[in-house]
Amino acid sequence: MENPAPVIAARHIAKRFGHVQALRDASVSVAAGEVVALVGDNGAGKSTLVKTLLGINKPDDGEVIIGGEPVQLSGIREAQALGVDAVHQDLALAPDLSVVDNMFLGHEQIRGLGFLRRREMSERAAESLRELGITLPSLAVPVSDLSGGQRQAVAVAKAVMWSSTAVLMDEPTAALGARQSDIIAELMRTVASKGLGVLVISHDLPRILKAADKITVLWRGETVLESPAAALTVPDLVATMVGYREEAS
User: Fold this and answer.
1) Is 143:65 a contact under the CB 8 Å cutoff?
2) By three-state DSSP, how is residue 4 classified?
3) What average pLDDT does this structure show over 167-189?
4) Of 9, 163, 176, 214, whose CA is between 20 and 30 Å from 144?
């Protein structure tokens, strides 16, 4: 059976920052309804590749494909206009604002005389959270009052609410405990079930192997492995990265 067409992809991306070759030949592909994990050692180029997909970095070579078409992005707003949004490692939430205000940050709904459509915003935020199975004590509380897992869930729900193509996640479980990490891993699957492509950077190999459909391994800016997650084990992934490291030494 042929592989489904990707909703977002990077093909043979190269990117240099001064004397540092961050990406040499990096590729990744995500289909609708698919969770793809991007893994590799620190410095492998994972975040650089994701930022290239978001238009934050302009590639020196290679191409970015969104919705089946090659695109040349000059900023994250252009990626968002094509239905791609991200959950950054720092979450990019405003801690003193409410859940609703955070979910509409940058997308405020305005009615006459500059007033916010607060009722409509609250209803849509509640619906978006409900569709993802996210339960919060209140949508009116400041985000700073939520647990780490709840804040992460809000960031995911916000990205999903404004996405129609793909959601990119950078280390979504990095600062969470085991139970909260399991919830976020389940949330990745729920997001994919809505028909979005999900690309996630993760160092949590055991958990991401269970959550992902496909694994892409980067090593020193190159894609060295693309495989169904079900065909891999944690030792497989570690051996791939260690093997390349030894080969180069």
Assistant:
1) no
2) coil
3) 91
4) 163
Distance CA 115, CA 208 (A): 43
The model's pTM is 0.90
CA distance 20 to 10: 20
What is the spatial distance between Cα 90 and Cα 77, in angstroms, rounded to a whole number? 19
CB atoms within 10 A of CB 130: 11
Closest CA to 218 of 42, 20, 30: 42
Q: Taking Cα atoms as reference points, which of 228, 164, 243, 220 lies closest to residue 48?
A: 220
∠ Cα 172 233 207 (to 5°): 25
Question: Which tokens belong to 223?
Answer: 């894609």
In this predicted structure, the answer to whether residue 59 has a pLDDT above a threshold of 90 is yes
Q: Which amino acid is at 61?
A: D
pLDDT of residue 109: 72
82 closest CA partner among 8, 1, 145: 8
Distance separating alpha carbons of residues 249 and 67, to the nearest angstrom: 40
pLDDT of residue 2: 59
Whether the CB-CB separation of 201 and 38 falls below 8 Å is answered with yes
Give the residue-averaged pLDDT of 125-138: 92
CA torsion 152→48→211→180, rounded to 10°?
A: -20
How far apart CA 185 and CA 41 sit, in angstroms, is: 21
Looking at the DSSP bridge assignments, the partners of residue 198 are 35, 167
Strand 35-39 versus strand 197-201 pairing type? parallel
What is the C-alpha to C-alpha distance for residues 243 and 234, in angstroms, rounded to an integer? 14
